[in-house]
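$ run holo --ligand "FE2/S2 (inorganic) cluster" --emit tokens
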Amino acid sequence: MTKAEHGAALEITDEQIDQICEEFGNREGSVVQVLQIIQEKYGYVPAEVLERVGDDLGIPHSKMFGVLTFYSQFYQEPRGKFILKVCVGTACHVRGAELLVDKIKENLHIEAGENTEDMMFTLEPVACLGSCALAPMAMVNGNSFGKLSPDRMLEMIHQFQEEEASENKESVSAS
Ligand code: FES
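-- output --
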């Protein structure tokens, strides 16, 4: 059994990997789709999972690693439950994107590309998100937020923390 983590600990079994590969006909040409599904479920592609996919699709490990590193969409390490993508493109830069990034760093004690210790947040400065009129922009788990101020950014972080705390409370009281 292979373990994977994405915020909370999750598990992916060899059988589940086999099943995903089978759904795509165990074809070498479907490697990117298979890895996308694995990453969607687990937040990243662990090395053991990569090997198993390679075995199923008949692709040598070195080639699998080449695919994983070629596409910037794939991650090899676990990431936080909330991915804070802060745009540092030109329009956002001139409207204070760095202040947003600094606010996150200061409050969560992480640098760009790092996760918080509790695996709640990952900070990812990114290039233009395509909504420059709303600069400065950020995206959190696929949702866009525009015209942000450092205080608003902090408020959002607190909101996510509160939501998470109440979700945890509910799951404790339900068990
Ligand atoms: S530069 Fe930030 S959205 Fe375009």
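-- notes --
The chain has two domains: 2-70, 82-174.
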